[in-house]
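re: ur question from earlier - yeah i can do the single chain one, its not a big deal. heres the input i used so u can compare w yours
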Amino acid sequence: MNALPTGYALHEYRVEKVLGVGGFGLTYLALDSNLNLRVALKEYLPADIAQRGADQAIGPRSADTAETFGWGKQRFLDESRTVASFRHPNIVRVMRFFEANGTAYMVMEFVEGAALGDWIKTRRPLAEAQAATIVAPLLDGLEVVHKAGFLHRDIKPGNIYVRDDGSPVLLDFGSARQKSSELTAVVSPGYAPFEQYHTQGKQGPWSDLYALAGVLYWMVTGSMPQEAPARIRADNMAPAVQCGDRKRFRPEFLAAIDWALTPYEDQRPQTVPEWRDALLAGKPVEVKTQKIQKATAPRLPAEVLKRAEQRLAEYIGPVAGVVVKRAAAKARDEAELYLLLADEIEDKDEKKAFVRQAVSISGKPAS
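and the output i got, formated as tokens:
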């Protein structure tokens, strides 16, 4: 883990213990000695490209990763500045950010309370009113984030805390990004929508709504949603309207959960107000799962799709099968299929090689 030692001081902050470890860094419980206040101190330390030295300073692992590390550190500071501008009681408050030890730090309020998973244990089975007291304030906070032009992109039970007064708070904006910026793949299985499994996915407010609906599905049914890629080929996940307790939840409430959990992003509610109306105000919705599956049925022979999947997997890995099926719904022939799939390959040389394969396999021009 290579964390800062207990008692280590950064300005007026003294490290007490590690609270969490993620792909982009570590979060500590620290004491603000000026205010005599406990805070959460987040340190930028992307483990795959950076390392800590004997003097506790952090730097890139090699000259090859120096530029990426520097870019990431600046991004961390820029996003800290943005999150610090959010003013909402149900979004974790960023109090300060600064550079030290060759890296960057974010100082946030330390939430006194319980993780949602612990909070819910003694309250199952939930009633709709209890679930609504959690999701309604989070929707209000998420609307603030979206109006500022940002996405959270990692909503899950572990990133939601319930304060001692019963109010929820959304934590960990480490994966947050501006909607206009390049959106990398971020995945929390069961809660991440399919568009976050690959860099070309169309991410937007609907992506955060999918994740929050996944949290609600887990709260209502007691089961984590199936991973999004598994639902693309054939959606076998039991909908909330079937497995939710009708004595505790209105059908409209359960249908709204299913709506936001639709696998395809253009079939979900697109904004917080749109989903809020359905979930909390009971506005009727139509979940179009079956229509989606029929609309995306492949037009090309199975052997063509299998061959394309095998070749694309060499470049993007096991998600290739799902990507091929979606592209097959648009392609008129094998050559066009390969041209559509080439957009999923980031490296320009690899993309050209893939297109050349398309021409040689199909015998048709790639134009």
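Residues 113-294 form a domain with the Transferase(Phosphotransferase); domain 1 fold (CATH 1.10.510.10). not sure if urs matches, ping me
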